[in-house]
Structures are given as structure tokens and as C-alpha cells.
Model the fold of this input.
Amino acid sequence: DFWMRLSKVARYNFLPKTLGESQLVERAASRRSEYHHGNLEALLRDHFRDAFGDSPSLGARLKMRRRLGLVYRSALGQLMQYRESPELQRRYVGKMLAACPWDPKNVARAMLWALGKGR
Done:
């Protein structure tokens, strides 16, 4: 949220290197994929509403759907990696494809899931 608010008053530059890392620890809060991705989704929806209003243009709606699809793909990837909750994985597949079915990475992740790679 801080970075989103700061972006309204400052410019950013892309740095093509990793400046920090986070660690996923078994049974730690960092492994609560659904919790973290749910919070990220809520943050993005608030940002979209602030940035684009209640009636975003077609281009803005497509960008929003693509970004939400990425969030769902990330959540699904973590759930698959740790072989957690097949039911929750199925829900994220549906959300991901509903948000952005034209993204080839989403299609590929859905296909991996369908082949049972994370269950």
C-alpha cells in the first residue's frame, strides 16, 4: 500500500536487479498464500478504483484484469508448489482464467494444474 500511495507523488525507475528477498518458511505467516494474495487483490482493487474511477475505459479494464490474473496465477503457483488444498487450487484456476484467459502464462499454468502437477 505504501508504494502504491507513493507512486501518486513520486516517479519510479526500474532497476534490473534483485534488491531484497523474502523467505517462505513452513508454518509461518509467509506461507499463507491465500491470505497474502487476498490482501493483494483487495489492495489492487482499491488502487484501480482510485486510479480509474467507477467507469474505467476498456484499456484500463483489460490492464486490471491482466494484473488480477497475475495475482491469481501467483497464488495458484504457490499452492501447487507446496501441494496445498486442491479445492483452493481449483478456485484459483477459475479466477485466473476468468480474469485473463488470453494470457498464455495463465493457460500454461492451468494446463499444468489440469495435468496434476500441483496436487
